[in-house]
């Protein structure tokens, strides 16, 4: 069979699935944007350029996001046309509709099934919208901007054959009328590689520190340090935590950009700079270490030495980092928000606190640092949760392959049974 993946940052969520399909003998190809990486052996990558040669035409500000998606859709369709001309005719297309890339594929291949990654659908109310009172701008222009921003997502549902969501809560953001065409299967965690490892350590060269299991290490990880992942709540809690635990070392991983929300007030600088300025004189900076993005193996070592890993998020997409930390038997203190509550039961395999309760966050972390032995069972059950529900080899990848084979056979898969 011939299978085409479409993802602006390929391989993205499809690293394991694309590799498995190629290894079993399917012919696999990919279309990706300028940031896509040709890292999968035997999977040719065809990059598209979303910028038209004549430049981006002017448009109404409220239509700018849609125009960006249309430009991507046109560029993808051009690449797909070229592939068809070269003799590659996919039996199945697998892609992420979030950036508009799938909007036109049915005009080239109307009979070919399309499997959409349903990662998150913007909601007019609930979920991340108006979740954080600090950043509420509830006016008609903001509502209209959001309504128009989600319109390509809603258009995409009319062209999907089937949808694939990583968690039940993320699947529930889909419109009700399409939920009977969704499967819930996570991308999968390699729990053999991502696992506890005795003797792990992390060296912070600038600080001259070597961190080992048993040290009071508090970790926080996000792709970018921003409010969507609770960075502002975490930072504002640190003065209280440092007073409660004067030996705690705090290690913060993440970039200075914005992945999901908006830049800080004024639109200049990073949220890190903004919050450090806000908290000037309140923090012991010698015990707070910003290390930026790090290679994956270093991240896993950090989880292994962590005495407490903090994961905060708006009701939004669940981060891989949370499940990877759990797989390494890190003790999780997370926000009681969806979809975290789908994975963690407070007091069973982690601890949950209200997203906005800084006092509860600080005291919960401090209690965890004060009595590691009492929290050991939570660490062990955290890993068990990931092994049982999210393991790549035994659960997620076989389920993904079975879904692909069902679609290739022209059959309807079993829906997830969402309300």
As a whole number of angstroms, the C-alpha radius of gyration is 22 Å
Number of strands: 15
CATH topology of the largest domain: Rossmann fold
CATH class of the largest domain: Alpha Beta
Structure description:
The protein has 419 residues and is an alpha/beta fold. It has 2 domains: 204 residues, Rossmann fold, CATH 3.40.50.2000; 188 residues, Rossmann fold. It is built from 14 helices and 15 strands. The strands form 3 sheets. The chain has a 7-stranded parallel beta sheet with strand order 3-2-1-4-5-6-7, with helices on both faces. The model has no long low-confidence stretch (mean pLDDT 93).
Secondary-structure map with pairings?
Blueprint: E1 2-6, H1 15-23, E2 27-32, E3 45-47, H2 64-85, E4 92-95, H3 105-108, E5 114-117, H4 140-149, H5 151-157, E6 162-165, H6 168-171, E7 182-184, E8 202-204, E9 209-211, E10 217-224, H7 231-244, E11 249-255, H8 271-278, E12 288-290, H9 296-305, E13 308-311, H10 320-327, E14 332-335, H11 340-343, E15 351-353, H12 358-370, H13 376-390, H14 392-408
Parallel strand pairs: 1-2, 1-4, 2-3, 4-5, 5-6, 6-7, 10-11, 10-13, 11-12, 13-14, 14-15
Antiparallel strand pairs: 8-9
Helix pairs in contact: 1-14, 7-8, 7-12, 10-13
